[in-house]
Amino acid sequence: MATITATPKSSLADEPLKIHVAGLEPSQLVTVQASLTDEKGVLFQARAFYWTDQRGQVDLTRDAAVGGDYSGVQPMGLFLLLKPEKPFSRLMKREVMSSPYKVRLDVFDSIYLVSQLQEQSLASQMVERWYTAPGVQRVPVRHGRVRGALFLPAGQGPFPGVIDIFGGVGGLTEFRAALLANRGFATLALAYFAYEDLPSALGPIDLEYFEEAAEFLLKHPKVRGPRIGIVAISKGAEIALAMATYLTQIEATVCINGTNAVHGYPLYYRDLCIQPIPYKYEHMLITEQGAVDLSNIFGDPQAELHRGSIIPVEKAQGKILFVVGEKDRNYNSKAFATEIMERMKTLGKTHCALLSYPGAGHLIEPPSSPFCYQSWLPHISSPVVWGGEGQAHGAAQVHSWKEIQKFLHLHLGPAQSSRL
To answer: Taking the alpha carbons of 236, 241, 243, 248 in that order, is the dihedral positive or negative?
Structure first.
């Protein structure tokens, strides 16, 4: 009798599973498939084709897929390469506290390409992927101007504090902050536009708002000072770089696929105003699928006209880790990070480090997030190309997630992890 077993059946979303198929004929061609439906009702699936061994078994930690959505030995390939049935959809968990993603694993005889006939499955198993472990708390934040959600790890603390910032998607995105809380970091998921009474659209950046958020986090009784960290991506990484440069509260900053200068909108901090490098929207490219490639809209910070927009990161007091995908089709993030590293080397500064991933695109996220090549971006009311290659991008997410945690531990002190 055929069986498919995933161990553990219930786990945190950034933890690996062991998937094993048994009870089949030797040298039998089978399809192993993962399916989940997100909170908006969109179906995501991935499938791969395997030959069973002499005992009629397939072990995804050992055996190579011969085709499907990936090939080779990819123990978590079915999760990393989930694809949406609805074009331009992005899998992004909204309700992180009370419900997991439920993923159905199926095994089918031979090559199976149809997504609707699950009754033909030889065996199936449902697994749960949680974003918070027992004991993790979510506290809504409405403090002064600051809006967001604070995730506190289980236990007494105090814990190292981290601010988590996303980019042009807007609103409040919580899944990465929740996962960081599982790893022992008191993490503030911070909104800065398109949420509650904040500005409805992305515009000028007031760095004092982010300073207010840092002060709020540091004053929390369960947060260990004297300084905090930041994890940020895209436009959020640009803001994080400015925070690291100008705010004394910041000790460790992770900039994922950001820039080296202020782009699009001015940045204000007290008496300081950094004028932006204007976006060159006329250089947008539209793909055959109708998505927008924004990689050419960013002006050259090295041009004489734009030198004043470069963020003087050499003034930063803390450490900075740049994480970039070399096939980012949203920002030219490798070039931006390389310029900073070269500038720091020339000045004899050693407080910056770079992780650069060939084949990775823009949306380098925790391993729980499947590769997303393109998706809808509300900020410009259009689908956007993020870039990357599926397997390489998935590997970059697994590696960078570990390195980000190591970096935060090193500079903010030890943290306690939570598990289901």
So the answer is: positive
The pairing of beta strand 272-274 with beta strand 186-190: unpaired
Quickly count: other Cβ atoms within 10 Å of residue 244's Cβ: 27
More confident residue, 30 or 381: 30
Report whether 69 contacts 32 (CB < 8 A). Answer: no
**Among residues of the chain, what percentage have pLDDT more than 70?**
98
- Burial of 182-196, coded b for 16+ CB within 10 Å and e otherwise, reads bbbbbbbbbbbbbbe
The Cα–Cα gap between 317 and 245 comes to: 7
Q: How far is CA 45 from CA 113, 159, 209, 339, 378, in A?
A: 11, 37, 40, 39, 24
Closest C-alpha among 28, 14, 42 to residue 107: 28
- Find residue 21's DSSP bridge partners: 4, 58
148 pLDDT band, cuts 50/70/90, is very high
Q: What is the pLDDT of residues 170-210, one digit of tens each?
A: 999 999 999 999 999 999 999 999 999 999 999 999 999 99
Neighbours of 164 (CB within 10 A): 29
The pTM assigned to this predicted structure is: 0.95
**Cα(46)–Cα(77) distance, rounded to whole angstroms?**
8
List, by residue number, the catalytic residues.
234, 328, 362
Residue 116 binned pLDDT confidence (cut-offs 50, 70, 90): low
Whether residue 45 contacts residue 31, with contact meaning beta carbons closer than 8 Å, is answered with: no
**Residue 131, CA atoms < 13 Å, CB-side half-sphere:** 23
**Coil, helix or strand for 187?**
strand
Query: If you search the block for the tokens 């039998």, which residue do you land on?
Result: 28
pLDDT at 380: 83
Residue 371's SS3 state is coil
Arithmetic mean of pLDDT, 247-269: 98
Place 117 in a pLDDT band, splitting at 50, 70 and 90.
low
DSSP element (H, E) containing 288: none
Q: What is the pLDDT of residue 418?
A: 64
φ/ψ of residue 178, rounded to 5: -60, -45
Distances (CA, A) of 9 to 83, 101, 102, 197: 22, 12, 10, 40
